[in-house]
Design goal:
Blueprint lengths: L1 H24 L1 E5 L1 E2 L6 E8 L4 E9 L6 E8 L4 E4 L7 E2 L6 E8 H4 L4 E7 L10 E7 L5
Antiparallel strand pairs: 1-3, 2-10, 3-4, 4-8, 5-6, 5-7, 5-9, 9-10
């Protein structure tokens, strides 16, 4: 009876491991370089989503409170940049300066870019006027 319980426990543990492990196997994350505030930090995570898609998640803390931020993909060689998901215009931080951004993009499109950047909009609107790069990370290192 004891051996049967041990075997059942091992089978259950193996089932849980194999069910959960794939969810974490294709996730890569890294700390983003900070440009504006010494105590601020942001992490970008790129995860396999559906077939041919990647999910990008950015978590940031100690930013300017109640402020607007947009997320950009940058191709340094070609000098181009594009806002990630312009329909949502990025994210707003809360009263403590914490914020998060999440989007799913085609993997093929993501391969056209070198970097991902988070821009602060001190004017409060997602426009280029006054925009400043707050964080950046190389996509080749995480995606």
């Amino acid at each position: 009876m004891n051996a049967l319980r041990t075997l059942a426990g091992l089978l259950l543990a193996a089932a849980v491991f194999f069910a959960v492990a794939p969810a974490y196997a294709d996730t890569e994350s890294m700390e983003m370089e900070s440009f504006l505030w010494e105590d601020s930090r942001a992490e970008v995570e790129v995860t396999d989503a559906a077939e041919g898609e990647k999910e990008i998640t950015i978590r940031a803390e100690n930013l300017m409170p109640d402020s607007m931020y947009t997320v950009w993909l940058v191709n340094e060689e070609q000098g181009g940049a594009a806002m990630v998901n312009p329909m949502e215009h990025g994210f707003m931080t809360d009263s403590e300066g914490n914020g998060a951004f999440n989007v799913v993009v085609p993997e093929e499109e993501l391969q056209n870019w070198d970097r991902i950047e988070v821009a602060w909009h001190p004017e409060g609107a997602p426009t280029a006027e006054g925009m400043q790069t707050a964080f950046a990370a190389g996509l080749n290192d995480i995606g």
